[in-house]
Amino acid sequence: MSAAIRAVSALPSSTTRTLSEQKRHRHRHRRVARSSSLRAVAGDFPTPDLDKPGNANYQEAKALSAKLAGNAASVGASHEPKRVVVVGGGLAGLSCAKYLADAGHVPIVLERGDVLGGKVSAWQDKDGDWIETGLHIFFGAYPNMMNLFAELDIEDRLQWKVHKMIFAMQELPGEFTTFDFVKGIPAPLNFGLAILLNQKMLTLGEKLQTAPPLIPMLIEGQDFIDEQDELSVLDFMRKYGMPDRINDEVFISMAKALDFIDPDKLSMTVVLTAMNRFLNETDGLQMAFLDGNQPDRLCAPMVDHIKAGGGDVKLKQRVKEFVLNDDGSVKCLKMVSGEEIVADEYVSAVPVDIMKRMMPKQWSTMPFFHQIQELEGIPVINIHLWFDRKLKNVDHLCFSRSPLLSVYADMSTTCKEYYDEEKSMLELVFAPCSPIAGGNTNWIAKSNEEIVAATMKELERLFPLEIGPKSPDGVGAKLLKHAVVKTPRSVYAAIPGRNKYRPSQATPISNFTLAGDWTSQKFLGSMEGAVLAGKLAAEVVTDKAVYGAPTKGLKKIVPDVIAEARELQAKEPAGVTGESEVSFGGGCVMEDADEKELAVLDPEQMVKLEGAPAR
Fold this sequence. Notes:
Layout: E1 17-18, H1 56-71, E2 83-87, H2 91-102, E3 106-110, E4 122-124, E5 130-132, E6 138-139, H3 143-151, E7 158-160, E8 164-168, E9 176-180, H4 189-197, H5 204-220, H6 222-227, H7 233-239, H8 244-259, H9 268-280, E10 287-290, H10 294-308, E11 312-314, E12 319-324, E13 330-335, E14 340-341, E15 345-348, H11 352-358, H12 367-370, E16 380-387, E17 398-399, E18 405-410, H13 411-414, E19 425-430, H14 448-462, E20 479-487, E21 512-514, H15 527-545, H16 559-566, E22 588-589, H17 592-601
Parallel strand pairs: 1-20, 2-3, 2-15, 3-11, 8-17, 15-21
Antiparallel strand pairs: 4-5, 6-10, 7-10, 8-9, 12-13, 13-14, 16-19, 16-20, 17-18, 18-19, 20-22
């Protein structure tokens, strides 16, 4: 297999433009002319057949969609439509609103910023190039997301890639190896065969040692998976006698791709949850890229659907606080503008760190809400590198298996809207980037130039014959510009022992529901988890609207949380202030003003590991 990167120079000279030196733009610009017009040239492979009787997760997701849509017929007969305010315009909030509209209710989404999508948001720089908060991949094992695409009739926007996994070889720099899934072989045999056919990553003996510890997962299912939450991936391996090379060859890349965390810090429940989906679904590991930017190609159809159903989505709507009634229920939302917004039901679809800062005093001593203090977002960095020439690449996602990098792709090849025949744009996930994720450096506190320098050095190590002084011409491609998008608090940190604190969507408050991928649902902190959490929140609201219809109830709260809550003193919410995206759980190319806000709001993010100020 050809290497994914051609010769690239080390860190470019001072003439290289960085997005930190440019004024950041979050509104549309006319896209600059390319040397060739936009064409469907990026590779498309056949769409996997997911809607089949044997795909239990897909059918379950489809049934929930049907249940919610079926409710619309009873609105007005057995109950009135509810006006529901959804705070947060990320995937969870938009999903919740979409399914509330399907159920006959009137959702109003309030988004603080001027771009939708939350952790899948994107915006254009002054050149018209798209900057993405993260490198997002769609899997066949995303049943609710796949149903959503079908319901919106936008399935053709998914660019499916050949069914394989591609890994950079640590011991053989510049080379790759693959897990190839043979067409026609059902799960779990196709996964097992893909591993057995690979001759470069594990010996036959190591492969055979890997299987026994995973058998209980297949037999006992989710109960066994949940029981492993107290163990890190490395703890699990040692408990079951798995060879260390399995961690080096597979689990490091898998852990960082799933939650931006190294195996010694990641809960084994996360890895087992993913493996359970992939082992039980024939097309679960087949990957797709969106054919363009997320706001236009994914969020906009959701907005159109919500509005067509009688709802609305409003931008630049900053909520100051939840105003409560004497019984603790929500009376209204007080906006920063001074306006008060009243609804029948309220849904919070904000990140967990923002919900903690907005927690009303009256709720702060309740065990249900106290438990979320145990959750926090994990830092992650998404890097864009633009070059002056087209680099050798593969039309797929690549797992770097690097200490600093997680996954990457040449978006100028994998994505139709970003396609360029003459120049490449690499998008790379930099992880782990903090101590909580297993790193020994707080990269959030580093300058963008330092992060790019470390990235280029790592790419030179991975591809020594193509990057740096050993390249054929001794120079390599010139790096034209870069964008370093920092999200100080991204998806919840799935470190051992945290899964039990993830709350249900239903809450003890009669007219308040939670959404967000950090709430309790079986697809982790991911796009699929966000869509499912929003859908489950819509189900809670819809079930409550039907007189006498029970919800699924509250998730059980662990005894320690209940005991701690008895000793708590009620406290006023810290509130969320500032103007930067990072102050509200988002990501951006950080400038001085963003760093200053972050230093006030979340001081540990701007402190070096040894405790001295970063800058």
